[in-house]
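User: Modeling request: complex.
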Amino acid sequence: MTILDIAVPFSNFSDYADALTERLLTQRLFAEARILDKEGYEEWLADFIDEKIQYWMPDMETRRRDDVRGTFCYGEAAYFDDSIKELTIRVKRYNEPSAWADNPATRHVHLISNIEVFNTEIANHYAVCSVFENIRNRNMADQDVIHGRREDIWKLENGVFKLVIRRIFIVQNVLLSKNLNTFL
Amino acid sequence: MCDNNSCGSARPNMKPVYPKADKYPEFAKLVDEEKSQVDRRVFTDEEVYQAELKQIFARAWLFLAHDSQIPNPGDFIRTSMGEDDIIVVRQRDKSVGAFINSCPHRGNRVCHVDSGKKSRGFICNYHGWSFGIDGGLRGTDGGVYDKDETFEKSEIGLPPVAQVQSYKGLIFGAFDPEAPSLEEFLGDFTFYLDIMLDNDQGGTEFIGGAIKSEISCNWKFPAENFVGDILHASWTHQSGAQAILGGGVDLGKRYDELAFQASIYGHGIESNLDKVGNTRTLGYPDLVDYVFDLSEKAKDRLGEVRARAIGAVSSSNVFPNFSFLPGQNTFRVWHPRGPDKIELVVWTIVNKNAPDHIKEQYRKGVMMTFSPGGVFEMDDGENWEYSTKVNEGYMTRQQPLHYALGVGTLDEERDLPGIVHKGSKNEANQRLFYSRWAEFMKYDNWDDLQNSKVTLPQNKKQQWSD
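Assistant: Request completed. Predicted assembly structure:
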């Protein structure tokens, strides 16, 4: 199924989901952002992430419009290209008292907007587009801001929406931060 | 400027300019070899930084690209040499040219992208001056200059990097026409480069794309970290090691016998020769198996010692700012962007003949460990940022920094090239890195630089370790 191929970004969806589904998934995105803001990474993995998750944030290259390679490509350099195995390792590090870049704690805000929810060719699978602003502040004037777009597939199973696919396209070519100690 | 007949009669001299180096003995003294300490002004002072751009980055061989990034004529990537914006482009005869990315008319950049394929040339957006992949001017918009007899386009082009040479797939450039050959500049350090570049028939390639990030630190903090600072690994990276391995960083059971640091002309490597310690931190058992097998096979090519180094806990820096980690297969450059900022560019290297799933696991493994969101690199940036930023304090930056770990550990018996010290938990390579830095400040010629009494290996009685 094309929508479950991480390497293929969304083309145009037109079949908007019904109002109730849209409301439930919007709430779900906001709840996820709130959990990430409070660094509830284990809770995030357990409650929001499907065990088949494909979580990809490619390197954004600056290329000419006529370059057939486009500005990113699956299989090349990426910030994240994770299954549940890799995400679990990242979360384990956050839980270590010696994760110095997170101790003292980072203050996070994930702002989520421009949410659109679509039906897809697979039952109980919804395509969700959104944009985010992520703000991290740690120490005095030490502040990092990242903006980007997300393409998600959320699966409804046993009454719960879980994230199966997430593509994260940031607008930065050079990451203007010393690290990326968050999930987006 | 004027419009009468006497002005403008001489044509512009558009030949590229390669300024001579100077001497900065006062800056060289900021590195105190006898006391094994470094003055913090080397990390903060704007004048020192400008001297670095002139003495080091305008002279030394700097990494430009891997052959595999630009296989065909017209393929190019954009990079930096110091703060200079550089286009590296494969020529029709398969050689490589490198040019300053700045139009000789008003100086605008002529290439605005990270890379491209099969380009026929570069055109300035300002007045349409266009250049071939050989850097030569091809024409201007509307041909106005072409009809002007004072305009001799054959003399005009993108200023070329004076020398471009490669070593086993790695392409380097030097602005200095007087610089010795790349192999002379690397010296016997090629012995250690081969651990990564020549452990398998068929050579290496870079996986596509590069992760770039900005860190607010002086470029020498990460360079000295990679040249010989395994000491930080068990403390800084305790969390990452716990997450991946479920335990601390392990330097191997035969540390006392095997671990070493080696330095040649300020290039340095530290290794524990424990076979797979670095590879293991990537978190994929298949990769560990691959490196064990590779290590056995590579004995024929590299010998016992280097075969043990392919995946070992180790790190390396080629002077001044090109670093890599054997076993974890990350190659990176710390481009200076002022005394207190760098742009870090990170690539993943793999053997061309490695199976696809092994290449894929290296790609993912580097991303998991040594990229901005990686469980190891995440904790490095902040150390280097505050090691730099704290020196804004006037009194703070008067205080010396201690570089004396392992003074007196020179190993004159070990049968390895370079100035060899016992144990990898040592600051010998860092001391020699700063000695090399001081030599670039002190000397205005390559004869002195290449015959240094301190950083050239055959002179083993160097001051640091007496």
